[in-house]
Design brief:
about 475 residues; Serine Threonine Protein Phosphatase 5, Tetratricopeptide repeat; two-stranded antiparallel ribbon
Length: about 475
């Protein structure tokens, strides 16, 4: 191992290299002096020679420098300078090509340089260099990438994995040019995995496909490029993903492809549920100041809801918590927004009249909409007038025949009768309570089947009760 030079000697040698004194450097070497500069000096003679571009000096120093680390630093500098001729000299005199990360070679933007390193076994897998280069939009990496796949079929899967990562990234960015280039390179838009951010490599919940990225990001031109089809793609899931962030154009495009919006087991639409969830988040002012959600502040969400409802999407919450969440959102919204939403649902048939009535018929919601009596009447909710401390059920009396319903609930169980009215047994029980229709008690039908019924059928009370105005004429259902 050579003895390191002193600081003064190191500066003297570097000055000779910087001024191109080739013969003086030769004399330096003939005198037996070392080329290893002091650790206090940050550059080596080889690096200075590459910086000055003196080919003969580079060759002289590379031939006589026994320090591998100096040649490695010089090789990296030659690559970054895009000087293939310097690289050839350094490699000829012992520089190791594996000492330079392949991503640095790709960043040189020189196809000849890239192919030189590939021919000498550059590591194209560790650190996903091609994926990183594609993310930096290095076009000169594209053709060597394809050539590498063709010449090394055993690496094809790993290389495709890198291309797929870049494709997901550009799909999320909406860069149609690079999406097309990645498809040309062989990337698969239906392959699921991480993007270019290495933090999510080991988190499957953050993995997606390029199609899903384009869909949730709202890039319609990219999505069209992937040529979706019902046979290969889960279009209802994509519709739900687009609706979750109110990507109107994507939702309309998927509906034009014939995607059914109603994909839930109960016949409802998960896309409609997802869009209603986003209703609380589009108006960004709500999170900063205490204000109600404005109708104009959620115009994209409302337009998306209108597209879904017009296409036949049905609102059928699977869980009670789903309906409660929507109700909480609407209680934070301007009354006009609530009225517009249910007018839309009524016009398109997105939910039943009974659902609208049950959803709005709560004390807090009635208080929230107290100035919208005329609009509520148009929705079929009835008047807000109260008599004897309770709301008078005008609309229920217009829909149900009390005498007929009274006979029916005592002739068969509620769960059998409810489907005939198109409601649930719980909703029908609430209707009977509001109309003051007595119903069988708990266990009545089991006792009846066992022949042990002692409960007498109570008479149907007079209705309306004292204090209420005359009833409108009711019609049998």
């Amino acid at each position: 191992m050579e003895t390191a030079l002193s600081v003064e000697e190191s500066k003297c040698l570097l000055a000779l290299c910087r001024t191109g004194r080739l013969y003086e450097v030769e004399d330096w070497l003939k005198s037996g002096k070392s080329l290893e500069v002091s650790s206090a000096v940050r550059v080596t003679p080889l690096q200075v020679a590459i910086e000055t571009g003196f080919h003969s000096l580079i060759e002289l120093l590379a031939r006589n420098d026994r320090e591998g680390s100096a040649k490695a630093h010089a090789l990296l500098q030659a690559v970054q300078s895009r000087r293939l001729d310097f690289v050839l000299v350094l490699v000829e005199h012992g520089a190791d090509t594996s000492s330079v990360p392949f991503i640095e070679v790709l960043r040189a933007w020189d196809p000849k340089l890239i192919r030189f390193f590939l021919a000498r076994g550059a590591d194209v897998i560790t650190g996903s260099p091609f994926a990183e280069a594609f993310g930096e939009k290095i076009r000169t990496a594209l053709r060597p990438f394809k050539e590498c796949k063709e010449s090394h079929p055993e690496l094809a899967d790993d290389l495709d994995w890198q291309a797929n990562r870049a494709l997901r990234y550009f799909s999320a960015e909406g860069n149609l040019k690079w999406v097309s280039l990645m498809l040309w390179a062989g990337a698969d838009p239906r392959s699921k995995g991480p993007g270019l951010d290495p933090r999510f490599d080991d988190d499957p919940e953050c993995h997606s496909t390029a199609i899903e990225e384009a869909c949730s990001s709202g890039h319609l031109d990219v999505l069209r490029r992937f040529k979706l089809s019902p046979e290969r793609d889960n279009l209802p899931a994509l519709l739900s993903s687009a609706a979750r962030f109110a990507k109107r154009e994507i939702v309309r495009y998927l509906l034009e492809l014939g995607t059914s919006p109603n994909d839930k087991p109960n016949g409802g639409s998960s896309a409609l549920d997802a869009c209603l969830w986003y209703l609380e988040f589009e108006d960004i002012r709500v999170g900063r100041i205490k204000t109600l959600i404005k109708r104009y502040g959620v115009y994209r969400t409302f337009d998306t809801l209108e597209s879904l409802a017009s296409a036949g999407a049905l609102w059928r919450p699977s869980e009670r918590s789903d309906a409660l969440r929507v109700r909480r959102t609407l209680l934070k919204s301007e009354p006009d927004l609530v009225i517009d939403l249910f007018n839309l649902f009524k016009k398109t048939g997105a939910c039943t009249q009974e659902t609208i009535r049950d959803f709005l018929d709560t004390p807090r919601m009635r208080d929230h909409l107290k100035d919208k009596g005329w609009h509520l009447t148009r929705l079929g909710i009835g008047r807000n007038e109260k008599h004897a401390g309770e709301q008078f059920p005008y609309m229920l009396l217009a829909r149900y025949d009390r005498e007929k319903l009274y006979d029916e609930v005592w002739s068969q169980p509620m769960w059998k009768l409810a489907p005939e009215y198109g409601v649930s047994d719980v909703a029908l029980a609430k209707t009977c309570k509001k109309l003051k229709i007595p119903t069988p008690g708990r266990g009545y039908w089991a006792k009846l089947a066992a022949g042990r019924v002692r409960e007498r059928r109570p008479p149907l009370p007079q209705f309306p009760v004292a204090g209420h105005p005359p009833l409108p004429t009711s019609s049998a259902r």
